[in-house]
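Deviation from plan, reported transparently: copper (II) ion complex.
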Amino acid sequence: MKTLITAASVAALLPLAAFAQSTEAPAAAAKALPGFGANSDISVSDGYARTTGKGSGSGYAHLQNRSDRECHLNGVTSTAAARTELHTNREDDGVMKMEKVEQITLAPGGEDGLTRGGNHVMFTGFHQKFVEGDQIPLTLDFGDCGTVAITLPVDNRRAPEASGAAGMDHSAMDHSGTEQSGTEHSGH
Ligand SMILES: [Cu+2]
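Because the crystal trials were delayed, the predicted structure below was used instead.
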């Protein structure tokens, strides 16, 4: 009974519009398709995540700048891991190495990808286990071009993008190629 009275009093004090907004906002957010998100300048699509099974994982997505100015992906954050960083793979004396990337630039109207073997999101120190089909929250910070919050479905069976060299597969590097089996999605 006490709860009922409290809720009723709060509703009476708030303007009706504000009350409606506060109850509808979470529902609207939950409707977003996994792997997709946008603001007025940037759209992020086809996002997914993978894990090596050793407490680290990686995230991939397609980035599109729909504005007429240059936009920069300055960083990524997630509640799913202790550290979430932008990385790239670089070949050094025939050995593939990962290194941190400070910024990814998108030209006006330009596109780029967070891809296997290229720039990617790196999760280390899992707070959330990357179980197949789980949704990993990710916020991409585009500075002046705003932020985009998405969720990445964990898809360890996903084949690398057609453009990426199979030998540069990020997870194969970390995990002796044990995740090379899935080819059923190669039509992408
Ligand atoms: Cu990495």
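The two ends are 56 Å apart (CA to CA). We consider this an acceptable substitute for the interim report.
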